[in-house]
Here is the input.
Amino acid sequence: MQEPHAMPLFTVEVAGRPVLVFSEASRESAQDILVSLIGPDLQEFESDGVAVWDGEAPLAVREADPVETTRWEQGLIEAKEDSAGDEDGPGDGDDFAVFLIDLDEEGEEEDGEEA
Here is the structure.
């Protein structure tokens, strides 16, 4: 059985919609990371042809619920398997995040196939 993750997990919500789970030492530092790094990055990602964050909708961070925690743990396991042998893999997950929404692939057309 896998040992539990050492640092708490937090969920980022955009306008009340959970979009991302990440690990951070405390809620305060999670909030700082949200403002300084995650928020701006969310503007670069799209879901269904729309930016994940428009730069104006309310952003919030809260403790991840059990379902979100499981999604993060599964994502970390998959990332470790995918990067086996890579020096820059996800490591212990301290700098690892999992999206809870489907993201558009880069270069994907808006009228592409439905998933």
